[in-house]
Amino acid sequence: MQKEAAIREPLILGNKTYHDVTEDVCRPIEGKAPKMWYILFAIALIIGLYGVGSILYLLGTGIGVWGLNKTIGWAWDITNFVWWVGIGHAGTLISAVLLLFRQKWRMAINRSAEAMTIFAVFMAGTFPLIHMGRLWVGYWVLPIPNHFGSLWVNFNSPLLWDVFAISTYLSVSLVFWYIGLIPDFATIRDRAKKPVAKRMYSILSFGWSGRAKHWNRFELVSLVLAGLATPLVFSVHSIVSFDFATSVIPGWHTTIFPPYFVAGAVFSGFAMVQTLLLVMRKAMNLEAYIHTKHVEYMNIVIMVTGSIVGTAYITELFISWYSGVEYEAYAFLNRATGPYWWAYWSMMTCNVISPQLMWIRKLRRSLLFTFFISIVVNIGMWFERYVIIVTSIHRDYIPAAWSMHYPSHIDIAVYVGTIGLFFVFFLLFARYFPVLALNEVKTILKGSGQSYKESPDYHKHH
Amino acid sequence: MSDKVIYAMYGDDEVLKSSAKKLVSGGVKISEVYSPFPIHGIDPIIGVKGTRLGIMAFLYGLTGLTLATIGMYYFMVVEWKMNIGGKPNFSYVENILAFIPISFEFTVLCAAHGMAITYLLLNRTLPGMPAQNPDPRTTDDKFVMEIRMSDNHGVSEEKLDELLKDTGFVELDKKIIE
User: Fold this and answer.
1) Does the beta-carbon distance from A179 to B48 stay under 8 Å?
2) Most C-beta atoms within 10 A of its C-beta, which of A45, A250, A351, B71?
3) Full domain range(s) for residue B153
């Protein structure tokens, strides 16, 4: 058993036993869903289906239904893609990077953060696929022998790197998540009373035994997967940024894109985790496991990555002037003062100013304030991608080609639809899956549980 | 061949650990321990060796790297020297920078999935397998030590009972399994 300094706040509040942890996590799954769940699920489903309908309309009619034009060939679609992929970075960061750093507070949040990651990457993957227009030839992105002669996909292209990065990231996160879920499904399986539930969880738990040797392997597999997922998570958003950085468009052609995108991804990902968890902990009575300290830790991550993002914005601005390239300078001047000034300044306010408020201890420990800021950051990060993508291309080298982008109703419906679908997945997850890595939480109960830390025996030995 | 198995159930991981120490020093071979979460420090006591899955992951990763290199070399250098901006891919080494991202991704892909599949196969945990734990409570808050008599020819049952007596178990179960 590992002990920690008395000064550290306990991670599990109250007087919990191992059995209480099981009870607290399994109760919402075994009981009836609250009315609110059905209401939220119905709303999310309707919005999601509207999005699916819009996608079908798009596939039937063509990409012309978006508000794109000759100058602006990339707009909402790619913005949404980058936004979702960015959100999808927090889960792996929490479970992999924090595992390598042995941060115990990850254990209460990693399961739902990873679920969020996977669903967010699903949503992200939708956008490049539908942008192909002809979804049914989507398999052409794979290097498969074909009947077109010596025609292979271009391995020199960042867009193909992206195909590999996103699909590797999605499948590896899914495996990482599921390996952790197996023992928890076994816990639910062994408690289930209804035959259907018993059968389902029995299939899902793969017959998990809990043997010492299996736990030994489990811990090593988790560690190695974390070691693999850590560089992976950094590579994914670096490669997403290459989609832009390797082009010669002023405003995109910058070397700071990879670290800047990765920091932004972590920033937005943690914001989304906050948004979801603040509601979930309340709705599922998990306040003892996910409490102010966890929120504070995440706010610190938001503050640090937000500061990196802010520094990147200012660096970009400075370098565009310092470079002496007038097209580069204009691209940035146009962002701040051109027709899209409102998007630029929304981005600046949401992403640069709001995280700085987290320096104040009272604010970063306030749940209501955190919830508000998490929404602000989500909006700000969408604007960041919109600013980078649309304002860089809407005024190109020939003023006669200058244009504006106005989203069509399908643009909006597809975006909002993915938010609906994302919540459909997340609500299903919260209803049927153990939302806390309950078996991992049990390992820190004695080291970081409040009742254990406050007992007189705690600091006697070691 | 029938075998007699003793299941000693404990309510706490630390109690099980000290009990296991006592039994092992008394010459008992503990066949298996079932627990709801990994008990740190139990492996050396009951003689579970470290897993070699990490080495497997490395080998799978190496396979992935090799496959990616061979594949890209064939597609981009041998089969069709794609000419980009007047700079065709004449050799792999000269263009290696462009091939690094996919080499990395494919290495990770193969290492992660290869290891995960090996892990599931080694544990014999696959979809639809029946539960392998002796008691449903071992996935909640109970810890079970399994002692097979066939592993303990040198120890009489009486001696075992004597050793187990004061270890603080909550339940003791003896079963004959075929």
Assistant:
1) no
2) A351
3) 3-49+142-177
Whether residues A235 and B101 touch (CB distance < 8 A) is answered with yes
pTM for the whole structure: 0.90
A217 CB within 8 Å of a chain B CB: yes
Q: Is residue A251 within 8 Å of A392, Cβ to Cβ?
A: yes
- Tens digits of per-residue pLDDT, B4-58? 888 888 888 888 888 888 888 887 888 888 888 888 888 888 888 888 888 999 9
Report the chain A residue with the minimal C-alpha distance to residue B128. Answer: A203
**Chain A residues with beta carbon closer than 8 angstroms to that of B13:** 1
CB contact under 8 A, A183 and B36: yes
Which residue in chain A has the smallest CA separation from B129?
A: A207
Alpha helices, DSSP H, located in chain B = 13-25, 42-46, 53-73, 96-123, 157-164
Residue B76 and residue B28 in one domain: no
Same domain, residue pair B92 and B44: no
Of A18, A143, A202, the CB nearest to B71: A143
Q: Looking at chain B, which residue has its C-alpha nearest residue A157?
A: B98
Please name the residue ranges forming H helices in A62-194.
Answer: 76-87, 90-92, 98-100, 106-131, 158-191
* B117 and B62 housed in the same domain: yes
Number of domains in chain B: 2
State the ipTM, two decimals.
0.90
* CATH number for region A18-138+154-448: 1.20.1630.10
